[in-house]
Design goal:
366 residues; globular; 2 helices; four-stranded antiparallel β-sheet; mainly beta
Amino acid sequence: MKLRLPFIGLILVSILTCAQDKNPVNQENNHQVIVSDLDIPWGFTFLPDGSMLINEKEGKLIHFKNDTKTEISGLPEIYVRGQGGLMDIILHPDYKDNGWIYFSYASSKGEGDGGNTTIARAKFKNKALYDFEVLYKAAPNSKRGQHFGSRLAFDTDGRLYFTIGDRGDRDVNPQDITRDCGKVYRINDDGSIPADNPFVDSTNAKKAIYSYGHRNPQGMTRHPKTGKIWTHEHGPKGGDEINIIEAGKNYGWPIISFGINYSGTKFTDITEKKGMEQPLHYWDPSIAPSGMAFINSDKYGDWNGNLLVGSLKFQYLDMCTIENNKVVKEERLLDGLGRVRCVEQGPDGYIYVGIENLGIVKLIKK
């Protein structure tokens, strides 16, 4: 018995050590709270006048201007379940001319019980949305509470990309292009399908699909120099990934993965396979990534060009130094403030970060 107790203790220490994040804390940063008292600010965007539109996951759209929060009317019914609710929000690249705002949210409309991720657009005036129209609705609905996605990004040609997670149907959705979910999609700004989408001529395929084999991408951004669309996605236990998205590519989930089941068992024995893309980077242990932005500003000195990724699990902003499309260094910013949900660079060049049960803070380099 005397021999067994130290052995068991060693196992417990090993398990706890493996579960800890090893990234060093960067002490050269601070923050200023810009918007306080928010619950889960899933996404936010800046209007041309410097005010913000903020999506609270519970189904509230907030306009923050002159230190005042005003709830905006005109949203559709939001299906709030598990990870689903009111999610991302961005402006059209030509917002000043056309006024379009784009949303992702979970909706119960359509085929089946439950809900699924929906992409819509609307305009905004006098504390209300108008001209609201749905551009894409994933089908069928599901009562599962996980893996809705769902980030939004425009490319340099004004086409809209969005992500939808596998909705918990790991072995059904991600590898089947005739089904929604577990995909990155691309549509024109009015919801029509680009003629050069990779699967427009594939029988029974969902024509909006741009890439497939994804688990649950909750981060997406356009690289400020190359124009490429970058995503990250939640893996299972281990194996969160960063990917550069290419037309028609298969990113492997769940055939290949660097992760395992939450129970500790394996669901695959391989991490690579011909015809499937390797991630640019993966995390083990998982950080539970959400939100993603490049620093493209002179406000942060030698941090310019670094990639920022929020960590829900370890509650910090992960700053990734990238060289030749490889993450060569990671550091913790805003360490311990709370679960980081979203990251955006503001029109003033500063980075703003949505943190659960806190609000939106401005990242400051000391």
